[in-house]
Amino acid sequence: MLVVLGLASCAIRKYVPEGKAILTDYEIINDSTHYNISKSEVSNYVIQKPNKNIFGWLPRVWVYYKTLDKTDKSFYRWINKNFGVEPVYYNSVLTADSKRQIENYLNNTGFFKSRVMATKIDKNNRATVVYRIIPAKPYTIREVDKKIYDSAVSKEISKIDNDLVVKSGDNYNVFTMDKERDLITTHLRDNGYFFFTKDYILYEVDTNLRQNKADVTLLIDGKKHDKYFINKVFIYPDYNIKTANTIVNDTVPYTFSLRKKDPEYRFDFIYGNNPKVHLKTFNQVIQIHPGEEFSQKKVSQTYGALGSLKLYRLSNISFDTVPSDNDSVKLLNCIITLQKDKIHHYNIQLEGTNSGGDLGALGSLSYRNNNIFRGSEALRITLKGGFQAQRVDEYFIQEGMFNTKEFGVEASIIFPRFLSPIPLHRFVIEYQPRTMLLTSYNMQIRPLYSRYIMTASFGYNWRSSNTVEHFLTPINLNTVKVLPTELFAYVLNYETNQRIKDQYTDHLILGLNYSFIFNNQIVRKNNDFFYFKFDFETSGNVLSLFNETPIITTSSDNYHEILGIRYAQYIKYIFDLRFYHYFRNRNMLVLRFMYGQGVAYGNSIDLPFERSFYAGGANGMRGWQFRNLGPGEFKNEYGLNLEHIGDMQLESNIEYRFPIYSFFKGAMFMDVGNIWTLTDNESFPGGQFKFDKFYKQLALDAGLGLRLDFSFFLIRFDVAAPLCDPAYDEGKRWRISKLQWKDVVWNFGIGYPF
């Protein structure tokens, strides 16, 4: 394949028009070893960017040339658009413009009178441009001064003197000055200066040519800048733009206090019909209060808090100036309009399943009420059901084709406020946390056993910035009750492998969960972004404090139990890092790395079955069936009906996504990874993690995907083949030359895998 791509790239020479050369690369060289100039920053000012290549190969340009004269046919037009790329020909005008841009950048960063030389290197109809920078000695800042004619503004800025970034001894830098203008403007607008903008801030620079020094003076124009205070806050809790000018509204004053020791605030609610929402809902949400200084930060926080109210789909905050009896006090009225969303939502989902070759179907019916207690609390109730034709060992009796059934109900309520016996007033105002309650009951009927699972949790969710989100669940309860059939109970009784027995044993999980999420994606913009998630979970530690009390009993095998059920004790964490890179024409490359580990201790020998790691299936290591890879080099020589689980997981994925036609999208991907046990385990011989062996036990698959993207809903079909299988002996693990159709794994999923 690589040879073909290389030959194809070389063959593009005959398509290059006479007198032109394809721009394949550019280089930035700094002639000085004394002055550090960021090449990545300089590259931003190179206007003409070359075609992307793979070690000099240009396969996409070749595809463009080969299909260009056939684009009257839809198939070739599709190939040209999605797999080809138009060549970038060297342009001397753009090169000269780039040279000037780089020189301007050097001037703006203090390297006045530096020179930039642009040289074109031609070879085989290809061009490389070398931008050679010959930097002059940079100007450094000798003294920094301020001339602020408004004494009140000067006093306000002095509060952030230590945060200002233009400092004596640093290189002269226009970009640093602009950053400081933003910093000062933000501070002033957060402290009452409603009409202040960065345009009022200028810098006067006096240079000493002999010493390459510059004296910088921060100037704020001579006009007086007024500080504004909030006069009244008007809230329209049921605003409708179509009837805003026709409906007769009433004004309802509402007073409240956030804490007993705090002053009372007043909001004026304006509505015609009953808005069907408690006015106290807005106590913590709206942070703009009468009598306080205008603050842009509080406006932004209020927008964020209003966005978490499921009752509303749109919100708008505006300000009007109002006359004051005292000319020295400037006043603003705040107007907040809220447009409601639908209160009741219904959703039905149906999907086919393929778990280890066992076919089935799942369905769910969901109902959501966005205002269940008239405080924008979101209630969600989901009913689930499904069936599957699951294979069992020959000596077990199988009744009917669909011998596996599952039924469940889940209910959750999200409160748009902080419910806690500890007030944490500052935390609540700053981050607007939400409170989440969840409970569920699930019944699984299998050929060999029935399993009953009940969960209940209480936790919080909040954002500490636009890119960081936290989930803390201090109470997370999970109980599992297993009722094996009489024959299966007999088999389990003689099973010597404790890990297998634990999969079908009653247990209880009571612990704490925490998740940290970083995501710098900009919605509706095709910019590269990172996603990082850290999950931490622990169980059994609080219960262990009561081991010697009547609350906890001890079983005959010396394990501690509560209400007759053994509780699990473990710690578990997962790191998940992803990078999303956009190309032109809505193509995307996704890279993912994931590492997780769990350790059982105290009252547990192994991780609970549902908390163990697994590999294979629709969302990872797609060349293997669900829970059918690993751990380590485990072979399952006897073909036991065994779900492969482990104590740690290492996985990495690469996926290239591209549009096909309309809502049809495609993907090419590779997955590498495995799971391992931390200790030698007779259930999975060869499954223990060892530093000198684990890299030899990494599995590898590759495949293609078809996605039906309906914007609000995505259906995914992936087909993959195992290329390297650690279940085989060393020297026989690469399976590329031995692949058969039966080795190909078909996966079905809803949404992207990552």
Provide the fold topology.
Blueprint: H1 2-10, E1 22-30, H2 39-43, H3 59-68, H4 74-83, H5 92-108, E2 115-123, E3 126-134, E4 140-148, H6 151-158, H7 174-189, E5 201-208, E6 213-220, E7 228-236, E8 250-256, E9 265-271, H8 296-307, E10 312-322, E11 330-340, E12 344-355, E13 358-369, E14 378-388, E15 404-415, H9 425-431, E16 434-445, E17 449-463, E18 468-484, H10 486-493, H11 498-502, E19 507-519, E20 529-539, H12 541-544, E21 553-554, E22 560-562, E23 565-566, E24 570-582, E25 588-600, E26 648-661, E27 664-676, E28 699-709, E29 714-724, E30 745-750
Helix pairs in contact: 1-3, 3-4
Task: Give structural notes.
This protein has 754 residues and is mostly beta strands. 15% of the residues lie in helices and 40% in strands. The strands form 5 sheets. The chain has a 16-stranded antiparallel sheet. It has a 5-stranded mixed sheet with strand order 8-9-7-11-10, covered by helices on one side. α1 packs across α3 (59-68) and α3 (59-68) packs antiparallel against α4. The longest helix has 17 residues, at 92-108. The chain is globular, with a radius of gyration of 33 Å. Residues 1-6 have low confidence and may be disordered.
